[in-house]
Write a structure and sequence with these properties.
mainly alpha, 2 domains, 16 helices, globular, binds zinc ion, 394 residues
């Protein structure tokens, strides 16, 4: 599609300056009605159902399972695959992604990913579709209540537009989403003995509302609460609580800095079920070429951010630089010894001779010393950072 040439003047007016008729013209009625009606229906119908028929562990498991699949279909498929291409999958998996992704009722992958790429490109500006600078409510939900008047709203990235399955999902989105989001949970409800309508109410309606707001938190809360270990140039934050609520998307500061990484929680213990699902998919052969940023790059970014904070607080720039250089030097030395050690270990010509054994031992000791020096350099840095943090917090 071609970009719209003219910008709609009415978007430049604030709501207060518009007449009721103008406001009505700005509302995205389909999206607005859906986003208002579904939670209302859920809070009325669900208590009525529980009052009439009771609740069971089976229903909790049913809701939680579909809720998890729904959320992961957005984080694994729409976000980390279609928006960021942080790993590769074959066509049949893409087809599956598009089918399952429809159940969350968050729009087609084409539009979701186009918006999301724009969010990253122009984060926190007026061009950002869900900019936090227009307030928490706007970022969470408000942006979907009004028509997007951005001149490039119908200009889609080439890689997505030329994908036949992405195009078809967008074209028949309402049909596919209704089927996957309501009818399938209804049938699943029947299959598990709860009945078709309870299946639709719990696995469909209630699950959609919960799952939507979990995703919306990434645009609102993950740009409001938490810390900024990698950059303070945008509003994205890292937060464990948000990660629990959003299936791993809460390490949002990291994600905005290294958007290509298939992980958001980089440490093995950081709560990122999305990363675990992608890794499992790779393990069983469904995904490949998982992109990850090297540990060195990550450390560099973190240290640069800490340095910026230290200097802003008044720490000596010479001291900060010296401590950082100590880390870089120790890292470089450890790497070169590691390479030498690996090469020497596989030196088959002299392998196992007495001389070879002695040199190998020497190299092993050197490697260990280099590792200790690297840890010490990092510890020295941490102590220095903490001292300043404590001093300025007091
Ligand atoms: Zn993203
Ligand atoms: Zn963001």
């Amino acid at each position: 599609m071609k970009p719209t040439d003219k910008k709609d003047e009415s978007v430049r007016k604030t709501l207060k300056q518009m007449s009721w008729k103008e406001i009505a013209g700005e509302i995205n009625w389909v999206s607005a009605i859906f986003l208002v009606i579904t939670p209302l229906l859920a809070v009325i119908l669900l208590p009525l159902y529980i009052y009439e028929s009771g609740w069971s562990w089976g229903l909790s498991a049913f809701l939680f399972t579909l809720y998890s699949i729904s959320n992961l279909s957005i984080t694994v498929c729409y976000h980390r695959y279609f928006s960021h291409r942080s790993y590769d999958v074959p066509t049949w998996v893409q087809f599956l992604f598009l089918l399952v992704g429809s159940m969350a009722f968050q729009g087609s992958a084409l539009r979701w990913s186009t918006d999301h790429r724009r969010h990253h490109r122009v984060v926190d500006t007026d061009e950002d579709p869900y900019t936090i600078n227009k307030g928490f409510f706007h970022a969470h939900l408000g942006w979907m209540l009004f028509k997007d008047r951005h001149p490039d709203v119908d200009v889609f990235p080439r890689d997505l537009e030329k994908n036949r399955w992405v195009f078809l999902q967008d074209k028949y989105y309402v049909l596919i989403a209704t089927f996957m989001g309501f009818i399938v949970p209804g049938f699943l409800g029947m299959a598990f003995g709860f009945g078709f309508w309870p299946g639709m109410l719990i696995g469909g309606l209630t699950r959609i509302v919960l799952s939507q707001h979990s995703t919306f938190l990434i645009n609102s809360a993950a740009h409001t609460f938490g810390n900024q270990p990698y950059t303070d140039k945008n509003s994205a934050r890292d937060s464990f609580t948000m990660s629990v609520l959003t299936f791993g998307e809460g390490y949002h500061n990291y994600h905005h800095f290294f958007q290509v990484d298939y992980r958001n929680g980089i440490r093995w213990y950081q709560w990122d079920p999305t990363k675990w699902v992608i890794r499992t998919m790779a393990w069983i052969g469904m995904a490949k070429r998982l992109k990850r940023v090297s540990a060195d790059e990550i450390l560099k970014a973190r240290l640069a951010m800490e340095e910026k904070r230290l200097v802003a607080k008044g720490a000596s720039i010479e001291r900060v630089r010296a401590l950082r250089e100590r880390i870089s030097a120790a890292q470089a030395r450890w790497k070169s010894i590691q390479a030498e050690f690996a090469k020497y270990k596989t030196d088959r010509q002299t392998a196992m001779s007495d001389a070879w054994n002695k040199v190998l031992l020497e190299k092993r000791a050197e490697l260990e010393l280099a590792r200790i020096e690297m840890n010490n350099a990092l510890t020295a840095w941490k102590i220095y950072v903490k001292t300043w943090q404590r001093a300025t917090a007091a």
